[in-house]
Amino acid sequence: MKSLSLLSLTVGAVMCLTSCGSDDAEHDTITVSSPSCFCYVQDLTTGQGTTIPNVSATATFDRSEYKASLRLPYVTTAGNLGYVSGDGLALKIDTSTWEYKVTDATISSGSQTLSNITVHYDQPTTIDGVDCEGMYVSYTVDSQYQVTFIPYTTMCTATTETLNTTDQSTFPTTKTVYTITIEPTTNAATLIVTNAAFASGMPSLGAMTFGGLTATFHNGGYVLSCDELIPSISDTPYPRYKIEDLEATAHLDSQIKLTFRCMSVFKVDAYLTPTYSPM
After folding, report:
1. Residue-wise pLDDT tens digits, 166-184
2. Which of 49, 223, 229, 272 is disulfide-compatible with 256, CB 3.0–4.6 A?
3. How far apart are CA 169 and CA 199, in angstroms?
């Protein structure tokens, strides 16, 4: 998917007509792949979980028949053991946003069964000048392993509201962009905050980097946390803008809620879109 431009994907989603079947009937279809992801796998019998690197899912959506075909990795805590494919799955389409959804689906191949399959695909968009695409994938393997795809990098638009605890004034903005990068082998994460604004008339700070976050994973998402950190701007630390009590709780099928305090004065609450990744 990385090789396709945003324009070609958008046009493909709207215009792609592929001839299918022996009767040469035209079907309005698109084929998409998940962005660069790892997955979190939890053994439902023991509660133990692990991460599996570099997984990929492929989906073909037939808009004329409202059907989907999926190719998903057969993943357990032992690793990626191959792929399972299924056709003719029920597809829901939101024609106002061109969001595609497959929910509560099941596909089988021999003794391998994937159930409770949820795949959401969001149309490509541009965030802060970067072409992005979004796909959420989760399912259960053989009724024992719960699988959640997690992007290595997520770019998030957001609704952010800041409370000035000195005078109790609030400042809302939708201009701030948050970029989350996760390294699952070390449970480390970095958050980059672009167009940060905590008060009216606040000067532009450039991109603020919050390093040293700890990532913990759960079915459906993750939590990022840090008690205290010094953000950097253009690789220069800025102790004046000390960040405290940071926590980001990600439910990847809905939203990421981020909270932190800055300069011991500003209390920030942000609600982030969770699915988009750079193409």
Report:
1. 999 999 999 999 999 999 9
2. 272
3. 9
